[in-house]
Amino acid sequence: MVPGVVWLFALLTFYGLLALTHLFIQINLSHRDYLNSIHRHRRFQSKEIKNLRGDDYFKFSVAVIIPCYNEGVEDLENCVRSALDQDYPFPFQVILVDDGSKDKSAVRNINEKFAGNTRLVISEFPQNKGKRHAQKYGFDVVGDSVDIVITIDSDTVLARESVRYIVQPFADPQVGAVTGDVRAIKKNLLSKLIDARYWTAFNQERSAQSLFGTVLCCSGPLAAYRNVLIQQIKEAYITERFFGTICTYGDDRHLTNLILEKGYRVKFERKAKAETEVPQRLKPWLRQQTRWNRSFYRELFWTLKRIILKRRNTQVYMLYDLCMQTMLPMLLVLSLLFVGYRSIIESPVYLIGYLMILIGIAILRGAYAFLRTRDRVFFLFPLYAFCHIFLLIPVRVYALCTLKTTKWGTR
Asked: What's the CA gap between 269 and 164, in Å, rounded?
């Protein structure tokens, strides 16, 4: 066997073993978390628990903060209505902060449709300041008047019991933040693929992390935080810098990191559900993915420095998962380049075999999702795998090379 083939075989074997091991560990842990959540909700709903504590066990006062900027009229109305219509019997308010929108149609519509609703507070910035500042304004308005702060995006629609469920993990005083189960609003093939990816991102990746209380990102469309912690970290949140430049995105990941840094647990609550608008065309989707990847790498450095290196009780799984999230894409690029080179100079059989392996891994990932949901869209996961290889991997490399960029990208 020629040396080049030996190196290729070794690289593919190493990458394949790492990828499959990570996938099986992730599925195993996420399924354990899923079974634990079923047991927990059954226990909470049992007659014994109701007699002992009833709903008072989760009697948290809540504020939902919605920052918006040039949002569509219908999207913002659906978002605000879903927040106001929550099935939650305890003290509850919604704070809408318009971040200096040039088009005020959506905010005017909210003022007209929900005039007199005492649960709703509307504030408008005279000029655009950025999402973090809009959220921080909401944090300031809330002060210490509530127990839990929930942040949602202005194009998100909450299920009616989302608030009721997302506050339940805070019964544990060590829980500092919780993220809900976010799905995409499906309108075409791309959004269906994105929705399938969202399911695995939350119900596999975050669910596995949640088992150890180390969810690394409370997603912007639906996240809840213990307010006493928010009041402590809100200044650090809006003043984050990367090589001297103020950060304008990656807000959800950084806010989560600030909670983890304080030693609190971060959980995933699958029964707190939301749907959010996603890009319907490739170009806006790739711009969004570029921004998300930049924030991932920025926060990766921050996490390594401020949490993993300083905290003695850092969970082993957090470190392992971060290593895999960092290493696997790099190994994928190296193996793809190597396979492409060997396919050109020798035979396309190398590339065909490589793609078959990747399709097999995608089928395995989709199979677990199908068994849980019975949704046949997960049979399209190999198609998403091709998007990942030929579109998202180049985007990730580009994002890594342009980390200092502050441009939002999808606005």
From this structure: 11
The answer to whether the CB of 92 falls within 8 A of the CB of 60 is: no
Mean pLDDT per block of 10 residues along the chain (411 residues) reads 63 82 95 92 62 60 97 96 95 96 95 93 93 96 97 97 96 96 96 96 96 94 98 92 70 93 94 96 94 87 73 74 88 82 80 81 92 93 88 88 66 45
54-279 homologous superfamily: Spore Coat Polysaccharide Biosynthesis Protein SpsA; Chain A (3.90.550.10)
Q: Is 121 helix (H, G, I), strand (E, B) or coil?
A: strand
Among 321, 362, 328, 201, which Cα is nearest to 270's? 201
pTM beyond 0.70, yes or no: yes
Question: Residue 395 has what DSSP assignment?
Answer: H
Q: What is the total residue count of the chain?
A: 411
The tokens describing 4, both together, are 């080049």
Distances in Å between the alpha carbon of 401 and those of 304, 329, 394, 395? 19, 15, 11, 10
In the chain, what are the domain boundaries? 54-279
Name which of 384, 362, 327, 329 is nearest 20 in CA terms. Answer: 362
Question: For residue 320, how many other CB atoms are within 10 A of its CB?
Answer: 12
